[in-house]
Amino acid sequence: MSLVLGLPPEIQEFSGVDRLGEKCRIAPDVTVLRHGIREGDLLCLGSLATIFDQTRFVLGDISINLNALIQVGNKSIVNVGCYLSGEGGLVIGDEVLIGPHVKIFSAGHAIHGGDPSIYKNELTYAEVKVEDGAWIGGGAIILPGVTIGKGSVVAAGSVVTKDVQAFSIVGGNPAIRIKMRKGYEDAGIVKRFINWLG
Question: What predicted TM-score, i.e. pTM, was given to this entire model?
């Protein structure tokens, strides 16, 4: 058993990470899987970003996708034991909180048509976005193609299969809207009105 106190250390570089912002913190046992992925600004961490122990970033494992990308914004925190798939693209905004053991997937397997064996079917990719100020509770799972709206909350243990409206609170499997955050109840109405104006 080991005892860990406080934040991961500030670092200047980390194997597999292409760009680090100022005062970025990454635990020494974080892993980056980049099988066959070209060099470039594909894994970028913003200033004051903090990545805790046993987190895994995946840009490529058994396949290569030209849209592979992981960006973590300024002051965002990724807690212990997260799995962050960037094969289809993963953009995490500023001041995002990601709880322990969250899994975010941007790749999967084709399940309709094709071969009866999923193993033989093509891989699928869809970008995931987590907008500024969102909070994803511990153990949540985010599926490919989802956008987690600005300032929204995903309850612990939820499975998110659809976009999450800004400032909303969602939970369950599949996640559904529970309510709007207090003080932001009219955010959806304003957005729909602006979209209606064109």
Answer: 0.89
Which one of 35, 101, 109, 112 is the catalytic residue?
Answer: 109
Q: What is the distance between the terminal CA atoms of the chain, rounded to a whole angstrom?
A: 58
Domain ranges of the chain: 19-197
Q: What is the pLDDT of residue 113?
A: 82
Please confirm, yes or no, whether 101 is among the known catalytic residues: no
At the top level of CATH, the class of 19-197 is: mainly beta
Question: What pLDDT digit, counting tens, does each position of 47-89 carry?
Answer: 999 999 999 999 977 667 778 899 999 999 999 999 999 999 9
Report residue 28's pLDDT band, with 50, 70 and 90 as the boundaries.
very high
